[in-house]
């Protein structure tokens, strides 16, 4: 008969105030854990926005590549070599580099990420770029990231009000700015390493970064023929291209970026540490709650033991209490 009595629940609910305090503590730990995981996911999501919004089946990068914020260029000829494989239909080079954008109101300069491509077609999945990319064929025109941080000034607001917006871009090695005009907006957003983005044509990119060699690109976008097996082509390219480049599919490209932020950056270490600490705190809190509850019911457990109940039954009661606390603590 006693097996049908919800002993675990009755012991927990006997002292209602203690039970509610225990649930509040567990709920706090659960919220803490989810907050840390949320911060970590925000880091990954923002760091991989570009990876998700560029066209391509496979991606070619330098073997020295670390991340978008500290990447290495490689010869453009490596990208064109991939056209020698029968399942490769077309390729597109992408140039990326940090510049300094001068706030048109305050005159202060802030780092901004510049992406350059050949605007004969759109290589971005962003709807604004797909619709108006041909505007970049006009010299010295740029698209500005409306989701950029506010320190760049009211550029997006002025453009949305149909006001002409001109600004100066400075390369990190240059003292003289290059004047450009905003001809469109898009939404990509900042990350922990990038405050804002500009999209320009490859010719404008080279005029801004005069020290750059047009034959050195940063990311190669590889488009396969319809029906091609991307994994097989990936293997063929990896086996036949020189070792100074790497080929990845989109998933691996994104995971590579995530691993960089997780393992090689201080903020990734901090987030991982916070998640671990949250888990440890949770274990300690639940342990203390169960320890206190068991200590206050030692007489009942001793009575059950004297009645012939085995340790297995007593352990089951304790585990049931742990599950009840975890379930009810998670609900809020």
Automatic annotation (TrEMBL):
Keywords: Cell membrane, Membrane, Transmembrane, Transmembrane helix, Transport. The lineage of its organism: Bacteria, Bacillati, Cyanobacteriota, Cyanophyceae, Nostocales. GO terms for cellular component: plasma membrane. The keyword Nucleus does not apply. It holds the Pfam family FtsX. This is ABC transporter. It is a multi-pass membrane protein. It comes from the Bacteria. It is found in: Cell membrane. The chain crosses the membrane at residues 20-39, 269-292, 313-331. Residues 273-331 form the ABC3 transporter permease C-terminal domain.
């Amino acid at each position: 008969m006693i097996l049908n009595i919800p002993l675990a629940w009755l012991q927990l609910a006997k002292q209602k105030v203690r039970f509610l305090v225990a649930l509040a503590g567990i709920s706090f730990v659960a919220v803490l854990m989810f907050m840390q995981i949320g911060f970590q996911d925000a880091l990954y999501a923002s760091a991989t926005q570009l990876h998700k919004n560029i066209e391509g089946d496979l991606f070619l990068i330098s073997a020295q590549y670390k991340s978008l914020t500290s990447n290495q260029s490689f010869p453009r000829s490596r990208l064109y070599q991939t056209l020698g494989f029968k399942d490769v239909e077309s390729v597109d080079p992408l140039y990326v580099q940090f510049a300094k954008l001068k706030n048109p109101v305050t005159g202060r300069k802030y780092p901004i990420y510049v992406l350059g491509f050949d605007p004969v077609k759109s290589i971005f999945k962003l709807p604004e770029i797909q619709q108006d990319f041909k505007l970049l064929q006009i010299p010295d025109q740029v698209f500005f990231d409306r989701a950029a941080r506010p320190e760049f000034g009211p550029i997006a607001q002025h453009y949305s009000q149909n006001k002409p917006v001109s600004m100066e871009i400075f390369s990190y090695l240059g003292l003289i700015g290059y004047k450009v005009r905003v001809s469109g907006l898009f939404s990509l957003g900042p990350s922990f390493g990038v405050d804002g983005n500009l999209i320009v044509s490859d010719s404008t990119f080279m005029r801004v970064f005069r020290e750059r060699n047009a034959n050195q690109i940063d990311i190669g976008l590889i488009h396969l023929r319809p029906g091609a097996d991307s994994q097989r082509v990936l293997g063929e390219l990896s086996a036949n291209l020189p070792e100074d480049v790497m080929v990845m599919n989109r998933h691996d490209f994104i995971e590579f970026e995530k691993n960089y932020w997780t393992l090689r950056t201080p903020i990734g270490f901090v987030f991982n540490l916070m998640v671990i600490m949250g888990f440890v705190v949770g274990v300690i809190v639940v342990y203390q709650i169960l320890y206190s509850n068991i200590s206050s019911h030692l007489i009942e457990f001793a009575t059950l033991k004297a009645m012939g109940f085995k340790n297995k039954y007593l352990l089951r009661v304790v585990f049931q209490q742990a599950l009840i606390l975890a379930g009810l603590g998670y609900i809020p």
